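tool=predict chain=A
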Amino acid sequence: MNLSSQLHEVALSNGDKIAYHFLDQHKTYAELDGAVTMFASGLSKLGIQKGGHVALITGNSPHFLIGFYGALRAGATVIPINPIYTSDEISFILANGDVKVAIILDMLVPLAEGLHKHLPQLEHYIICETGQVAADSDISNLSVYNKLLPFMNVIGLGQGEFQEPTVEEDDVAVILYTSGTTGKPKGAMLTHRNVYSNAKDVGEYLGINSDDRVITTLPMFHVFCLTVAMNAPLLMGGTIIIVPRFSPAEIHKVARTYEATVFAGVPTMYNFILQQGGDPEDFKTLRLCISGGASLPVALLENFEKIFNVRISEGYGLSEASPVTCFNPLDCPRKPGSIGTTIVNVENKVVNELGEELPPGEVGELIVRGANVMKGYYKMPEETAVTIKDGWLYTGDLAKMDEEGYFYIVDRKKDLIIVGGYNVYPREVEEVLFAHPDIVEAAIVGVPDPNFGEAVHAFVVSKDSALTEEKLRAYCEQHLAKYKIPSKIEFLDELPKNTTGKILRRSLKETVTTNV
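tool=predict ok
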C-alpha cells in the first residue's frame, strides 16, 4: 500500500504511456518515475531520512508531482501548503509540522528570507524554477542563500545508487493542515494505507482507467485533488492534464485539446463555467464530471448537465478521511442533492448525540470508519480523542440516509441556525435562492437576534441589477416556511472564497456581527 511503489509498477509495465501534460510539455511514466527516483535520492543525500518532514509550497505543476512522489519514495512525510497563505500562516505550519525541507516557488524566495529568521530548524529551501523570481530579490545577498537549492540541482544530486527505505503501511505519508473554523489549523496525519487505499477505491468506484485523461485544475495541495484528480488516475495508469490555475476558458481549451474524459471541480467552478458559457462541443469527450468540496445546488447541477450534456457525480469527503467516503454510483440511478452511497471499504452511518445509529430519514451526525480514516492529528492527542471514538471518525456534518442507502448532507453541525427553537439548515435556503433565475451565488449564515435567538441572513450575487431585497424575499415566501425566510438579504458583487472555491461563511458572518 504505497503510492510511490505503485507509480513505479505502472512505469515498468507501461513506461511509454503519457503520465501528464503541462502547458506545452508532457512526460511519460518512465520519465516521471525516473525523475521521482532521482529526486528521492537527492533528498536522501541532503540528509532527509525516513520519517523526515518535507513541505510542498508550490502551485499546480510537475514540481509538485515529482516533489510529492519523490518525498514519499525517500520515506519522508509530505506536508502540502497553500502557496498564497500569509507568512504567518506558512510559518506556523512549518514550525508546528517540524519541517526540515521546504520546496517552494522561486517567486517565494523573499518569503524564505523572512522565514529563515524564525525557523532555524529548516535545513534547505528547494526552489522551483518558474522564471518569476521577485524583482527585488538579489538571491546572492540573501542570508538564507546557503540553504537555497534549485529543484533540478536536487535531481542532479540524485545521480548514482539509491537505496529506497522500507515504509510500513501505518507510517505517516502526508500531513494535511485543515483550515479550522477557530484557532490554528490542525495537521491530519494520513498514513500510506490511508492515501493508497482511498485513491485505489475511488479510482475503481468511478471506473478510472488507463484510457482516461483527467483535468487536474483543483489545487494540488488540497486533498480532493490529491486523491481524485492526481493519485487515483496515476494509480490506474491514466493521464493527468495539469492546469496551473482555474479559468472557464482554460477548462474549455484543455478539454478540447487533450480530449479530456474526466473533470473534477468544486461547485463554484461549475457555476463559473455555466455563467461564462462556451461551446458545449468542447466537452463532448467528457464521460464524467465530479463535484465535491461543498454541497452542489440541485439547480446548478441540472442547468450544467442540460447545457453541456455531461453527467455530474457528486461525492463527499474530508481531509481526515483521505478524503472520500461517498459518491453517486455510475451504474445506478443518480440522485440530485445526494452525496451518493458508501464507497467500497468504507462505512458511513448517521448517529444521534449518544452515538446511536438513527433510522433512514432522521438527521444526525455523519460518522465514518475504514482504511481511509486518519491516524490522528499531529501532536494533538486530545483533539484526536474527541474526533475519533471507537474507530469512528466524527465528521461534524449533519446528514440523513434514505431507504436505498443514499446519503444527504443537511449542513455543517456548526452552521445550523436555530430560530425560535426551530432548526434552519442553510443549504435548504440556499437551494431555494439558487433556483431563482437571476441568482448566481448565495450563502446563508445565522446572526444573533434578540427575539428569536438567531435570524437567517442571506448574501447573494445577482445578474439582474433590478432584483431587490423585497422581490427576493417575496420569492422566498413562496417556497419556505416563515421562520426560514431571510430577515435580511445583502447583494454583493461576489462572495468570499478560499483557494479551493469554498464560500467562506465565517467571513460573511463576521461582516454582519461587526456591524451590529
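The longest strand covers residues 439-449. The mean pLDDT is 92.
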